[in-house]
Amino acid sequence: MESKHIISTLSDIASRCEFELTRLSDEPQIRALQASFLGAKGEIAQLQKLLREIPAEARKEVGAAFNGAKQRITEACAKAIEAKRGLEEERYLHSRLDPTLPGRAPTGVGHLHPLSIVMYDIVDVFVSMGFDVATGPEIETDYYNFAALNFPADHPARDMQDTLFVKEGETLLRTHTSPVQIRTMLRRPLPIQIVAPGAVYRRDDDATHSPMFVQIEGLLVDQGISFADLKGVLETFIHIVFGRDVKLRFRPSFFPFTEPSAEVDIQCISCKGDGCRLCSHTGWIEVLGSGMVDPNVLEGVGVDAERYTGFAFGVGVDRIAMLRYEGISSIRLFYENDPRFLSCFRR
Ligand code: DAH
Fold first, then answer.
1. How far, in Å, is the centroid of ligand 1 from the Cα of 190?
2. What is the CA(178)–ligand 1 centre distance, in A?
3. pLDDT for the residue numbered 331
4. Which residues 6+ apart lie within 8 Å of 337 measured at CB?
5. Which residues line ligand 1 (CB under 6 A)?
6. What are the DSSP calls for 81-104, one per residue?
7. Whose C-alpha lies nearest to ligand 1, atom 4?
8. Which CATH number fits domain 114-345: 3.40.50.2300, 2.60.120.280, 3.30.930.10, 3.40.50.620?
9. Is this model's pTM higher than 0.85 or not?
């Protein structure tokens, strides 16, 4: 074969390959085609055998034609593969994305935890009565959590609290929000009128007790504050949260930091006082502890107990939440954070 003929045949082969590529639809087919053209048994390899017969002076030109044809085929196949990949991606996207479908309402938007809802609502009630919001640390010392609140070192009242210690004899997880009373009186000028919401911790774990729970502390210290003020504020609070019709009672109690002390019960919202499981068949449910701030506590933080008096209270937020959302069987549901439970409180 003449060298001219070989050169034009090579060009034809490359053109044929380019044409055949236009009819192929996937990558394996393209690769097979490329192999059939360029492989050891392919047309080009067959032609290459004739190279020996070509006169030496023409060999350079013919050799270049071989290289040119191989390059054309290689490039054409690579381009075809790239184009098919782009097409496949587009097809894939189209199979997933139908821009004509109506949108879906987002479901992943967060909302407040039920305990936060109840906590903010309670705080709002007191803020509307002129209370300010104060906070304190969850890791406390014996001084703020016990000693300054008139718990003597070996007083059995400390046993009421089942303390979790962080570092024995040094730091502990606060067992109540009452230490914020002390911190506030040491920091703020009188008169003081605050509520302090927050988490507290005790070594307790059953259907009605969780090792972590939420309280709201209240403290009002001024001149001329009496038990009548305490009653008025707490009655107003109960009526706003549970409705005007709910009956409540102040029951004498004991706390080291208040004297006298009283617990507030409301008539059972489930049985209306007849007695049921919720109220342990007493007809009443305890919702908070309260009392007149003990003069020892006031004097301990440098407040003149002859001139100033005050009242304090502690509300169990979990308890209020369980009563408000009737049918919650265990306080632990509030802390397990099962999304199916939590989503019932979206608002
Ligand atoms: N700190 C008490 C507790 O956790 C609750 C309490 C009772 C707080 C009476 C008070 C109070 O401020 O006056 O059990």
1. 21
2. 6
3. 84
4. 113
5. 176, 178, 217, 255, 258, 289-291, 312-314
6. HHHHHHHHHHHHHHHH--TTSPPP
7. 176
8. 3.30.930.10
9. no
